[in-house]
Protein backbone atom coordinates (compact mmCIF):
# COMPACT_ATOMS: atom_id res chain seq x y z
CA UNK A 1 0.00 0.00 0.00
CA UNK A 2 1.21 3.46 -0.80
CA UNK A 3 -0.28 6.88 -0.42
CA UNK A 4 -1.55 8.20 -3.75
CA UNK A 5 0.70 11.27 -3.45
CA UNK A 6 3.44 8.80 -4.50
CA UNK A 7 1.51 7.49 -7.49
CA UNK A 8 2.68 8.23 -11.04
CA UNK A 9 0.77 10.99 -12.85
CA UNK A 10 0.03 8.57 -15.69
CA UNK A 11 -0.02 4.78 -15.48
CA UNK A 12 -1.29 1.67 -17.35
CA UNK A 13 -2.88 -1.53 -16.04
CA UNK A 14 -4.88 -4.59 -17.11
CA UNK A 15 -7.55 -3.95 -14.47
CA UNK A 16 -8.42 -0.77 -12.63
CA UNK A 17 -10.55 -1.46 -9.54
CA UNK A 18 -12.33 1.58 -8.05
CA UNK A 19 -12.86 1.14 -4.31
CA UNK A 20 -10.69 -1.00 -2.01
CA UNK A 21 -13.68 -2.21 -0.03
CA UNK A 22 -15.24 -5.50 1.00
CA UNK A 23 -15.56 -6.73 -2.60
CA UNK A 24 -12.71 -4.69 -4.13
CA UNK A 25 -9.90 -6.21 -2.02
CA UNK A 26 -10.61 -9.93 -2.72
CA UNK A 27 -11.32 -9.10 -6.36
CA UNK A 28 -8.06 -7.19 -6.88
CA UNK A 29 -6.04 -9.82 -4.98
CA UNK A 30 -7.42 -12.57 -7.23
CA UNK A 31 -6.96 -10.64 -10.49
CA UNK A 32 -3.32 -9.90 -9.61
CA UNK A 33 -2.51 -13.62 -9.91
CA UNK A 34 -2.31 -13.26 -13.70
CA UNK A 35 -2.46 -9.56 -14.51
CA UNK A 36 -1.45 -6.05 -13.52
CA UNK A 37 -4.04 -4.49 -11.21
CA UNK A 38 -4.52 -1.00 -9.83
CA UNK A 39 -6.65 -0.75 -6.67
CA UNK A 40 -7.75 2.79 -5.77
CA UNK A 41 -9.19 3.49 -2.31
CA UNK A 42 -10.27 6.95 -1.14
CA UNK A 43 -9.61 6.14 2.55
CA UNK A 44 -6.49 5.24 4.53
CA UNK A 45 -5.03 2.04 5.94
CA UNK A 46 -6.99 0.03 8.56
CA UNK A 47 -3.69 -1.09 10.07
CA UNK A 48 -2.81 2.49 10.99
CA UNK A 49 -5.97 2.99 13.11
CA UNK A 50 -6.12 1.06 16.40
CA UNK A 51 -9.84 1.74 16.71
CA UNK A 52 -10.63 -0.21 13.54
CA UNK A 53 -8.89 -3.35 14.76
CA UNK A 54 -10.33 -3.39 18.29
CA UNK A 55 -13.86 -4.78 18.83
CA UNK A 56 -14.34 -2.74 21.99
CA UNK A 57 -13.88 0.48 19.99
CA UNK A 58 -16.53 -0.25 17.36
CA UNK A 59 -18.66 2.73 18.32
CA UNK A 60 -15.66 5.12 18.56
CA UNK A 61 -15.17 4.82 14.81
CA UNK A 62 -18.84 5.48 14.04
CA UNK A 63 -18.84 8.46 16.38
CA UNK A 64 -15.83 10.06 14.63
CA UNK A 65 -17.34 12.40 12.05
CA UNK A 66 -14.05 14.07 11.04
CA UNK A 67 -12.94 14.12 7.38
CA UNK A 68 -10.23 11.58 8.09
CA UNK A 69 -12.52 9.12 9.88
CA UNK A 70 -12.77 5.58 8.46
CA UNK A 71 -16.53 6.10 8.74
CA UNK A 72 -18.53 8.75 6.90
CA UNK A 73 -21.92 9.56 8.37
CA UNK A 74 -24.92 10.06 6.10
CA UNK A 75 -28.56 10.69 6.85
CA UNK A 76 -31.02 9.20 4.39
CA UNK A 77 -33.96 11.26 3.18
CA UNK A 78 -36.06 9.00 5.46
CA UNK A 79 -34.29 10.60 8.41
CA UNK A 80 -32.36 7.50 9.52
CA UNK A 81 -28.77 8.14 10.55
CA UNK A 82 -26.41 5.79 8.76
CA UNK A 83 -22.70 5.21 8.04
CA UNK A 84 -20.51 4.30 5.06
CA UNK A 85 -16.84 3.32 5.09
CA UNK A 86 -13.84 5.33 3.92
CA UNK A 87 -10.90 2.98 4.49
CA UNK A 88 -9.07 0.12 2.77
CA UNK A 89 -11.20 -2.95 3.56
CA UNK A 90 -14.39 -0.86 3.33
CA UNK A 91 -17.39 -1.88 5.41
CA UNK A 92 -15.54 -4.86 6.89
CA UNK A 93 -13.38 -2.32 8.80
CA UNK A 94 -16.22 -0.47 10.51
CA UNK A 95 -18.92 -3.12 10.78
CA UNK A 96 -20.23 -5.22 13.64
CA UNK A 97 -18.46 -8.33 12.42
CA UNK A 98 -21.29 -10.87 12.00
CA UNK A 99 -20.29 -13.35 9.33
CA UNK A 100 -22.76 -15.66 7.64
CA UNK A 101 -23.15 -17.12 4.14
CA UNK A 102 -26.10 -16.65 1.78
CA UNK A 103 -28.82 -19.31 1.72
CA UNK A 104 -28.59 -21.93 -1.08
CA UNK A 105 -31.89 -20.58 -2.48
CA UNK A 106 -30.31 -17.11 -2.77
CA UNK A 107 -27.30 -18.56 -4.64
CA UNK A 108 -29.64 -20.42 -7.03
CA UNK A 109 -31.81 -17.34 -7.63
CA UNK A 110 -28.80 -15.18 -8.50
CA UNK A 111 -27.50 -17.89 -10.86
CA UNK A 112 -24.08 -18.42 -9.26
CA UNK A 113 -22.35 -21.81 -9.51
CA UNK A 114 -22.80 -23.39 -6.02
CA UNK A 115 -19.46 -25.27 -6.10
CA UNK A 116 -17.49 -22.18 -7.06
CA UNK A 117 -19.41 -20.20 -4.45
CA UNK A 118 -18.47 -22.73 -1.73
CA UNK A 119 -14.81 -22.58 -2.78
CA UNK A 120 -14.85 -18.77 -2.73
CA UNK A 121 -16.46 -18.66 0.74
CA UNK A 122 -13.75 -21.03 2.05
CA UNK A 123 -11.01 -18.86 0.50
CA UNK A 124 -12.41 -15.90 2.46
CA UNK A 125 -13.14 -17.80 5.68
CA UNK A 126 -9.60 -19.23 5.92
CA UNK A 127 -8.41 -15.67 6.60
CA UNK A 128 -11.20 -13.64 8.21
CA UNK A 129 -13.86 -15.80 9.92
CA UNK A 130 -14.00 -17.13 13.48
CA UNK A 131 -16.37 -18.88 15.88
CA UNK A 132 -17.45 -16.35 18.52
CA UNK A 133 -17.62 -17.00 22.23
CA UNK A 134 -21.15 -16.24 23.50
CA UNK A 135 -21.64 -14.11 26.58
CA UNK A 136 -24.36 -14.96 29.15
CA UNK A 137 -26.97 -12.60 27.60
CA UNK A 138 -26.37 -13.95 24.09
CA UNK A 139 -26.53 -17.54 25.36
CA UNK A 140 -29.84 -16.79 27.10
CA UNK A 141 -31.32 -15.30 23.89
CA UNK A 142 -30.22 -18.43 22.04
CA UNK A 143 -31.80 -20.77 24.60
CA UNK A 144 -34.92 -18.59 24.65
CA UNK A 145 -35.29 -18.92 20.85
CA UNK A 146 -35.05 -22.70 21.12
CA UNK A 147 -37.56 -22.74 23.98
CA UNK A 148 -40.16 -20.81 21.94
CA UNK A 149 -39.75 -23.25 19.05
CA UNK A 150 -37.34 -21.56 16.62
CA UNK A 151 -35.96 -24.95 15.56
CA UNK A 152 -33.83 -26.84 14.76
CA UNK A 153 -30.82 -26.01 16.89
CA UNK A 154 -28.11 -25.61 14.25
CA UNK A 155 -25.30 -24.94 16.73
CA UNK A 156 -22.44 -22.90 15.25
CA UNK A 157 -22.49 -22.57 11.47
CA UNK A 158 -21.75 -20.08 8.70
CA UNK A 159 -24.77 -21.40 6.77
CA UNK A 160 -28.00 -19.42 6.56
CA UNK A 161 -30.64 -22.00 7.47
CA UNK A 162 -33.99 -22.13 9.21
CA UNK A 163 -33.85 -22.38 12.99
CA UNK A 164 -31.55 -21.03 15.66
CA UNK A 165 -27.82 -20.73 15.08
CA UNK A 166 -24.67 -19.06 16.25
CA UNK A 167 -23.08 -17.36 13.24
CA UNK A 168 -19.45 -16.45 12.60
CA UNK A 169 -17.54 -13.26 13.32
CA UNK A 170 -14.61 -11.44 11.78
CA UNK A 171 -13.41 -10.71 15.34
CA UNK A 172 -11.10 -13.37 16.74
CA UNK A 173 -11.07 -14.64 20.35
CA UNK A 174 -8.95 -11.61 21.38
CA UNK A 175 -11.48 -9.17 19.92
CA UNK A 176 -9.18 -8.31 17.01
CA UNK A 177 -10.86 -7.51 13.70
CA UNK A 178 -9.87 -9.27 10.47
CA UNK A 179 -11.00 -7.48 7.32
CA UNK A 180 -11.26 -7.69 3.56
CA UNK A 181 -7.93 -5.83 3.46
CA UNK A 182 -6.36 -8.96 5.00
CA UNK A 183 -7.38 -10.83 1.83
CA UNK A 184 -4.77 -8.78 -0.05
CA UNK A 185 -2.25 -11.22 1.45
CA UNK A 186 -3.33 -13.53 -1.40
CA UNK A 187 -2.18 -10.97 -3.99
CA UNK A 188 0.89 -11.39 -6.19
CA UNK A 189 2.89 -8.34 -5.05
CA UNK A 190 4.35 -7.61 -8.52
CA UNK A 191 0.84 -7.78 -9.97
CA UNK A 192 -0.82 -5.10 -7.85
CA UNK A 193 -0.51 -1.42 -6.89
CA UNK A 194 -2.73 -0.31 -4.00
CA UNK A 195 -3.05 3.46 -3.62
CA UNK A 196 -4.67 5.00 -0.54
CA UNK A 197 -6.37 8.40 -0.27
CA UNK A 198 -6.98 8.09 -4.03
CA UNK A 199 -10.40 9.60 -4.85
CA UNK A 200 -11.71 8.60 -8.25
CA UNK A 201 -13.48 11.51 -9.94
CA UNK A 202 -14.42 10.02 -13.27
CA UNK A 203 -14.28 6.97 -15.45
CA UNK A 204 -12.93 7.90 -18.90
CA UNK A 205 -14.52 6.58 -22.10
CA UNK A 206 -13.62 6.24 -25.78
CA UNK A 207 -16.22 5.43 -28.40
CA UNK A 208 -16.28 2.51 -30.84
CA UNK A 209 -18.85 3.91 -33.24
CA UNK A 210 -21.72 4.76 -30.86
CA UNK A 211 -20.59 2.37 -28.16
CA UNK A 212 -18.71 3.75 -25.16
CA UNK A 213 -15.59 1.83 -24.10
CA UNK A 214 -14.10 2.40 -20.64
CA UNK A 215 -10.43 3.31 -21.03
CA UNK A 216 -9.30 4.55 -17.63
CA UNK A 217 -9.98 6.76 -14.62
CA UNK A 218 -9.01 10.12 -13.21
CA UNK A 219 -8.24 10.33 -9.49
CA UNK A 220 -6.93 12.88 -7.04
CA UNK A 221 -4.53 12.37 -4.17
CA UNK A 222 -4.75 13.99 -0.72
CA UNK A 223 -2.90 17.10 -2.00
CA UNK A 224 -5.43 17.54 -4.82
CA UNK A 225 -2.99 16.41 -7.51
CA UNK A 226 -4.69 14.80 -10.53
CA UNK A 227 -3.57 11.34 -11.74
CA UNK A 228 -4.75 9.39 -14.76
CA UNK A 229 -4.68 5.60 -15.01
CA UNK A 230 -5.43 3.90 -18.33
CA UNK A 231 -6.15 0.37 -19.44
CA UNK A 232 -3.24 -1.22 -21.32
CA UNK A 233 -4.18 -2.54 -24.77
CA UNK A 234 -5.84 -5.97 -24.42
CA UNK A 235 -9.28 -7.39 -25.09
CA UNK A 236 -9.69 -8.72 -21.53
CA UNK A 237 -8.75 -5.46 -19.78
CA UNK A 238 -11.42 -3.64 -17.77
CA UNK A 239 -12.37 -0.92 -15.33
CA UNK A 240 -14.27 -2.45 -12.40
CA UNK A 241 -16.37 -0.37 -10.05
CA UNK A 242 -16.44 -1.66 -6.45
CA UNK A 243 -17.24 1.56 -4.62
CA UNK A 244 -20.21 0.19 -2.65
CA UNK A 245 -23.96 0.79 -2.65
CA UNK A 246 -23.61 4.56 -2.41
CA UNK A 247 -20.30 5.01 -4.24
CA UNK A 248 -20.89 2.86 -7.34
CA UNK A 249 -24.15 4.43 -8.59
CA UNK A 250 -22.76 7.86 -7.67
CA UNK A 251 -19.53 7.22 -9.63
CA UNK A 252 -21.42 5.93 -12.67
CA UNK A 253 -23.56 9.06 -12.71
CA UNK A 254 -20.55 11.36 -12.26
CA UNK A 255 -18.99 9.59 -15.25
CA UNK A 256 -22.06 10.16 -17.45
CA UNK A 257 -23.77 6.77 -17.10
CA UNK A 258 -27.23 7.08 -15.58
CA UNK A 259 -30.66 8.66 -16.06
CA UNK A 260 -30.05 11.24 -18.83
CA UNK A 261 -32.37 13.96 -17.46
CA UNK A 262 -30.86 13.77 -14.02
CA UNK A 263 -27.30 13.95 -15.43
CA UNK A 264 -28.18 16.90 -17.67
CA UNK A 265 -29.63 18.77 -14.68
CA UNK A 266 -26.02 18.75 -13.35
CA UNK A 267 -24.56 19.73 -16.77
CA UNK A 268 -22.95 16.28 -17.04
CA UNK A 269 -22.26 14.90 -20.53
CA UNK A 270 -24.38 11.79 -21.05
CA UNK A 271 -22.24 8.80 -22.07
CA UNK A 272 -25.13 6.33 -21.74
CA UNK A 273 -28.74 6.91 -20.71
CA UNK A 274 -29.24 4.15 -18.11
CA UNK A 275 -32.33 4.93 -16.00
CA UNK A 276 -31.74 2.00 -13.59
CA UNK A 277 -28.62 3.61 -12.06
CA UNK A 278 -29.51 4.65 -8.50
CA UNK A 279 -32.80 2.71 -8.50
CA UNK A 280 -33.67 -0.22 -6.24
CA UNK A 281 -31.92 1.17 -3.15
CA UNK A 282 -32.94 -0.77 -0.05
CA UNK A 283 -31.94 -0.80 3.57
CA UNK A 284 -33.11 -3.60 5.85
CA UNK A 285 -34.99 -1.94 8.68
CA UNK A 286 -33.81 -2.79 12.16
CA UNK A 287 -35.74 -2.38 15.38
CA UNK A 288 -34.26 -2.89 18.81
CA UNK A 289 -35.99 -3.48 22.11
CA UNK A 290 -34.37 -2.41 25.35
CA UNK A 291 -34.80 -4.88 28.20
CA UNK A 292 -34.03 -3.45 31.67
CA UNK A 293 -32.14 -6.17 33.51
CA UNK A 294 -31.30 -6.96 37.14
CA UNK A 295 -28.24 -9.01 35.99
CA UNK A 296 -25.20 -7.41 34.37
CA UNK A 297 -25.17 -7.67 30.57
CA UNK A 298 -21.89 -8.25 28.70
CA UNK A 299 -20.86 -5.60 26.19
CA UNK A 300 -21.56 -6.76 22.68
CA UNK A 301 -21.44 -4.74 19.55
CA UNK A 302 -24.42 -2.58 18.85
CA UNK A 303 -25.02 0.03 21.48
CA UNK A 304 -27.78 2.50 22.17
CA UNK A 305 -25.81 5.55 21.08
CA UNK A 306 -25.76 4.27 17.50
CA UNK A 307 -29.50 3.82 17.18
CA UNK A 308 -31.01 7.00 15.97
CA UNK A 309 -33.51 8.51 13.63
CA UNK A 310 -34.34 12.10 12.94
CA UNK A 311 -37.67 13.22 11.56
CA UNK A 312 -37.40 13.68 7.78
CA UNK A 313 -38.64 17.23 8.19
CA UNK A 314 -35.59 18.24 10.18
CA UNK A 315 -33.02 16.22 8.24
CA UNK A 316 -31.35 19.38 7.00
CA UNK A 317 -30.76 20.22 10.65
CA UNK A 318 -29.54 16.67 11.26
CA UNK A 319 -26.22 17.61 12.94
CA UNK A 320 -28.05 19.77 15.49
CA UNK A 321 -30.78 17.16 16.00
CA UNK A 322 -28.15 14.46 16.52
CA UNK A 323 -26.19 16.66 18.92
CA UNK A 324 -29.38 17.32 20.91
CA UNK A 325 -30.14 13.58 21.02
CA UNK A 326 -26.60 12.72 22.16
CA UNK A 327 -26.78 15.41 24.85
CA UNK A 328 -30.18 14.12 25.98
CA UNK A 329 -28.84 10.54 26.10
CA UNK A 330 -25.97 11.65 28.33
CA UNK A 331 -28.56 12.98 30.81
CA UNK A 332 -30.28 9.58 31.10
CA UNK A 333 -29.22 8.12 34.48
CA UNK A 334 -26.96 5.06 34.24
CA UNK A 335 -29.43 2.99 36.26
CA UNK A 336 -32.05 3.51 33.54
CA UNK A 337 -29.65 2.06 30.96
CA UNK A 338 -28.85 -1.11 32.92
CA UNK A 339 -29.99 -3.84 30.57
CA UNK A 340 -29.50 -4.94 27.00
CA UNK A 341 -30.97 -4.81 23.52
CA UNK A 342 -32.46 -7.52 21.38
CA UNK A 343 -32.58 -6.62 17.70
CA UNK A 344 -34.54 -7.83 14.73
CA UNK A 345 -33.83 -7.20 11.06
CA UNK A 346 -36.36 -7.52 8.23
CA UNK A 347 -35.24 -9.91 5.49
CA UNK A 348 -35.07 -8.61 1.91
CA UNK A 349 -36.50 -6.02 2.26
CA UNK A 350 -39.29 -5.48 -0.27
CA UNK A 351 -39.45 -1.70 0.16
CA UNK A 352 -37.20 0.13 -2.27
CA UNK A 353 -36.05 3.67 -2.88
CA UNK A 354 -33.56 5.56 -5.01
CA UNK A 355 -30.34 7.55 -5.04
CA UNK A 356 -29.61 10.90 -6.67
CA UNK A 357 -26.64 13.21 -6.95
CA UNK A 358 -26.57 16.25 -4.71
CA UNK A 359 -23.47 17.74 -6.32
CA UNK A 360 -20.41 16.74 -8.38
CA UNK A 361 -18.12 15.92 -5.45
CA UNK A 362 -17.47 12.11 -5.36
CA UNK A 363 -16.57 12.37 -1.70
CA UNK A 364 -19.85 13.98 -0.70
CA UNK A 365 -22.87 11.84 0.14
CA UNK A 366 -25.49 11.49 -2.58
CA UNK A 367 -29.17 11.83 -1.57
CA UNK A 368 -30.60 8.40 -0.81
CA UNK A 369 -34.15 7.39 0.08
CA UNK A 370 -34.95 3.88 1.34
CA UNK A 371 -38.73 4.18 1.96
CA UNK A 372 -38.65 1.90 5.02
CA UNK A 373 -41.88 -0.12 5.48
CA UNK A 374 -43.49 1.22 2.31
CA UNK A 375 -44.16 -2.44 1.41
CA UNK A 376 -46.70 -4.07 3.78
CA UNK A 377 -44.74 -7.36 3.94
CA UNK A 378 -41.84 -5.57 5.60
CA UNK A 379 -44.13 -4.23 8.29
CA UNK A 380 -45.68 -7.68 8.82
CA UNK A 381 -42.21 -9.21 9.24
CA UNK A 382 -41.21 -6.51 11.69
CA UNK A 383 -44.30 -7.15 13.81
CA UNK A 384 -43.58 -10.90 13.71
CA UNK A 385 -40.03 -10.17 14.86
CA UNK A 386 -41.17 -7.99 17.75
CA UNK A 387 -43.66 -10.71 18.76
CA UNK A 388 -40.86 -13.31 18.73
CA UNK A 389 -38.66 -11.06 20.86
CA UNK A 390 -41.48 -10.68 23.38
CA UNK A 391 -41.74 -14.48 23.64
CA UNK A 392 -37.96 -14.82 24.10
CA UNK A 393 -37.98 -12.24 26.87
CA UNK A 394 -40.80 -14.13 28.59
CA UNK A 395 -39.05 -17.52 28.21
CA UNK A 396 -37.70 -19.39 31.25
CA UNK A 397 -34.22 -19.33 29.70
CA UNK A 398 -34.23 -15.54 29.82
CA UNK A 399 -35.67 -15.17 33.34
CA UNK A 400 -32.43 -14.02 35.02
CA UNK A 401 -32.29 -11.00 32.70
CA UNK A 402 -35.80 -9.71 33.44
CA UNK A 403 -37.38 -8.14 36.52
CA UNK A 404 -40.24 -10.18 38.06
CA UNK A 405 -42.76 -7.45 37.27
CA UNK A 406 -41.57 -7.16 33.66
CA UNK A 407 -44.23 -5.82 31.28
CA UNK A 408 -43.54 -5.89 27.53
CA UNK A 409 -45.55 -2.72 26.70
CA UNK A 410 -43.44 -0.88 29.25
CA UNK A 411 -40.25 -2.15 27.55
CA UNK A 412 -41.53 -0.82 24.21
CA UNK A 413 -42.36 2.45 25.88
CA UNK A 414 -38.91 2.79 27.42
CA UNK A 415 -37.24 1.96 24.09
CA UNK A 416 -39.39 4.35 22.10
CA UNK A 417 -38.84 7.11 24.64
CA UNK A 418 -35.03 7.07 24.35
CA UNK A 419 -34.05 10.56 23.23
CA UNK A 420 -32.27 9.12 20.16
CA UNK A 421 -35.61 8.03 18.70
CA UNK A 422 -36.61 11.44 17.50
CA UNK A 423 -39.33 10.08 15.23
CA UNK A 424 -41.31 8.73 18.15
CA UNK A 425 -44.52 10.64 18.72
CA UNK A 426 -45.19 10.87 22.41
CA UNK A 427 -48.72 10.02 23.35
CA UNK A 428 -49.14 7.45 20.60
CA UNK A 429 -50.00 3.92 21.70
CA UNK A 430 -46.69 2.04 21.92
CA UNK A 431 -48.48 -1.30 22.16
CA UNK A 432 -49.35 -1.02 18.52
CA UNK A 433 -46.39 -2.98 17.15
CA UNK A 434 -46.70 -1.49 13.67
CA UNK A 435 -46.42 1.97 15.12
CA UNK A 436 -43.40 0.88 17.17
CA UNK A 437 -41.75 -0.50 14.01
CA UNK A 438 -42.22 2.75 12.13
CA UNK A 439 -41.39 5.11 15.00
CA UNK A 440 -38.19 3.41 16.13
CA UNK A 441 -36.88 2.20 12.76
CA UNK A 442 -33.14 2.38 12.41
CA UNK A 443 -30.53 0.75 10.22
CA UNK A 444 -28.48 -2.41 10.52
CA UNK A 445 -26.32 -0.88 7.74
CA UNK A 446 -27.09 -3.60 5.16
CA UNK A 447 -28.15 -1.07 2.50
CA UNK A 448 -27.66 -2.31 -1.06
CA UNK A 449 -28.79 -1.72 -4.66
CA UNK A 450 -28.25 1.17 -7.05
CA UNK A 451 -26.51 -0.95 -9.73
CA UNK A 452 -28.73 -4.02 -9.54
CA UNK A 453 -28.36 -7.13 -11.66
CA UNK A 454 -31.00 -6.90 -14.39
CA UNK A 455 -31.26 -3.13 -14.09
CA UNK A 456 -27.72 -1.79 -14.47
CA UNK A 457 -25.50 -4.88 -14.86
CA UNK A 458 -26.11 -8.25 -16.49
CA UNK A 459 -25.52 -11.61 -14.75
CA UNK A 460 -21.80 -11.30 -15.52
CA UNK A 461 -21.79 -7.90 -13.79
CA UNK A 462 -21.04 -6.09 -17.08
CA UNK A 463 -22.73 -2.77 -17.79
CA UNK A 464 -24.52 -3.58 -21.06
CA UNK A 465 -24.09 -0.89 -23.66
CA UNK A 466 -20.57 -0.10 -22.40
CA UNK A 467 -17.45 -2.13 -23.16
CA UNK A 468 -14.81 -2.97 -20.56
CA UNK A 469 -16.86 -1.87 -17.56
CA UNK A 470 -18.30 -3.97 -14.70
CA UNK A 471 -19.69 -3.31 -11.25
CA UNK A 472 -18.88 -5.93 -8.59
CA UNK A 473 -20.04 -5.13 -5.03
CA UNK A 474 -23.13 -4.84 -2.81
CA UNK A 475 -24.71 -2.25 -5.13
CA UNK A 476 -25.58 -5.12 -7.50
CA UNK A 477 -27.71 -7.01 -4.93
CA UNK A 478 -31.47 -7.22 -5.35
CA UNK A 479 -31.82 -8.36 -1.71
CA UNK A 480 -29.47 -8.62 1.25
CA UNK A 481 -28.04 -12.18 1.46
CA UNK A 482 -28.13 -14.27 4.64
CA UNK A 483 -28.66 -12.60 7.97
CA UNK A 484 -25.71 -10.35 7.11
CA UNK A 485 -24.14 -9.51 3.76
CA UNK A 486 -20.38 -9.10 4.20
CA UNK A 487 -19.44 -12.79 3.75
CA UNK A 488 -21.25 -12.83 0.42
CA UNK A 489 -19.76 -9.49 -0.69
CA UNK A 490 -16.25 -10.84 -0.06
CA UNK A 491 -17.20 -14.15 -1.68
CA UNK A 492 -18.47 -12.28 -4.75
CA UNK A 493 -15.14 -10.44 -5.11
CA UNK A 494 -13.26 -13.76 -5.13
CA UNK A 495 -15.88 -15.58 -7.26
CA UNK A 496 -15.85 -12.94 -9.98
CA UNK A 497 -12.06 -12.61 -9.83
CA UNK A 498 -11.71 -16.33 -10.59
CA UNK A 499 -14.27 -16.05 -13.39
CA UNK A 500 -12.53 -13.06 -14.97
CA UNK A 501 -9.14 -14.79 -14.87
CA UNK A 502 -10.69 -17.77 -16.61
CA UNK A 503 -12.16 -15.50 -19.30
CA UNK A 504 -8.74 -13.90 -19.71
CA UNK A 505 -7.13 -17.33 -20.23
CA UNK A 506 -9.66 -18.09 -22.96
CA UNK A 507 -8.89 -14.81 -24.71
CA UNK A 508 -5.10 -14.86 -24.26
CA UNK A 509 -4.37 -18.57 -23.96
CA UNK A 510 -2.73 -20.14 -20.89
CA UNK A 511 0.80 -19.33 -22.12
CA UNK A 512 0.84 -15.63 -21.25
CA UNK A 513 3.60 -14.82 -18.80
CA UNK A 514 2.94 -12.73 -15.70
CA UNK A 515 3.07 -9.13 -16.82
C1 LIG B 1 -21.59 0.17 10.77
C2 LIG B 1 -21.81 -1.05 9.90
C3 LIG B 1 -22.06 -2.27 10.51
C4 LIG B 1 -22.28 -3.41 9.70
N1 LIG B 1 -22.38 -4.63 10.31
C5 LIG B 1 -22.33 -5.76 9.53
C6 LIG B 1 -22.18 -7.04 10.12
O1 LIG B 1 -22.08 -7.20 11.33
N2 LIG B 1 -22.15 -8.11 9.27
C7 LIG B 1 -22.24 -7.99 7.90
O2 LIG B 1 -22.23 -9.00 7.21
N3 LIG B 1 -22.36 -6.78 7.34
C8 LIG B 1 -22.37 -5.66 8.10
N4 LIG B 1 -22.42 -4.43 7.52
C9 LIG B 1 -22.60 -4.35 6.05
C10 LIG B 1 -21.34 -4.70 5.25
O3 LIG B 1 -20.18 -4.25 5.91
C11 LIG B 1 -21.49 -4.08 3.85
O4 LIG B 1 -22.66 -4.59 3.24
C12 LIG B 1 -20.30 -4.39 2.95
O5 LIG B 1 -19.12 -3.99 3.60
C13 LIG B 1 -20.45 -3.66 1.62
O6 LIG B 1 -19.34 -3.96 0.82
P1 LIG B 1 -19.06 -3.27 -0.61
O7 LIG B 1 -17.84 -3.90 -1.18
O8 LIG B 1 -20.32 -3.30 -1.40
O9 LIG B 1 -18.78 -1.75 -0.29
P2 LIG B 1 -17.73 -1.09 0.73
O10 LIG B 1 -17.16 -2.08 1.66
O11 LIG B 1 -18.42 0.10 1.27
O12 LIG B 1 -16.54 -0.64 -0.23
C14 LIG B 1 -16.55 0.47 -1.04
C15 LIG B 1 -15.19 1.15 -0.96
O13 LIG B 1 -15.10 2.07 -2.02
C16 LIG B 1 -14.46 3.24 -1.56
N5 LIG B 1 -14.85 4.33 -2.46
C17 LIG B 1 -16.11 4.85 -2.62
N6 LIG B 1 -16.08 5.84 -3.53
C18 LIG B 1 -14.79 5.93 -3.98
C19 LIG B 1 -14.13 6.78 -4.91
N7 LIG B 1 -14.79 7.71 -5.61
N8 LIG B 1 -12.79 6.62 -5.11
C20 LIG B 1 -12.10 5.66 -4.42
N9 LIG B 1 -12.68 4.86 -3.50
C21 LIG B 1 -14.01 4.98 -3.29
C22 LIG B 1 -14.95 3.38 -0.13
O14 LIG B 1 -14.09 4.18 0.65
C23 LIG B 1 -15.00 1.92 0.34
O15 LIG B 1 -13.81 1.50 0.96
C24 LIG B 1 -22.25 -3.28 8.28
C25 LIG B 1 -22.00 -2.04 7.68
C26 LIG B 1 -21.76 -0.92 8.47
C27 LIG B 1 -21.49 0.40 7.80
From TrEMBL:
Name of the molecule in the record: Glucose-methanol-choline oxidoreductase N-terminal domain-containing protein
Occurrences of domain Glucose-methanol-choline oxidoreductase N-terminal (ranges): 13-285
Domain of life assignment: Eukaryota
Family per record: Belongs to the GMC oxidoreductase family.
Cross-referenced Gene3D superfamilies: 3.30.410.40, FAD/NAD(P)-binding domain
Organism listed in the record: Eleusine coracana subsp. coracana
UniProt: FAD binding residues: 87, 200, 445-446, 474, 485-486
UniProtKB keywords: Disulfide bond, FAD, Flavoprotein, Signal
Membrane-crossing residue ranges in chain numbering: none
Matching PROSITE patterns: PROKAR_LIPOPROTEIN
Cofactor(s) this protein cannot do without: FAD
GO molecular function annotations of the record: flavin adenine dinucleotide binding; oxidoreductase activity, acting on CH-OH group of donors
Residue span(s) of domain Glucose-methanol-choline oxidoreductase C-terminal: 349-493
Pfam families: GMC_oxred_C, GMC_oxred_N
Record PANTHER family: OS02G0678300 PROTEIN (PTHR45968:SF14), OSJNBA0019K04.7 PROTEIN (PTHR45968)
Disulfide bonds: 382-437
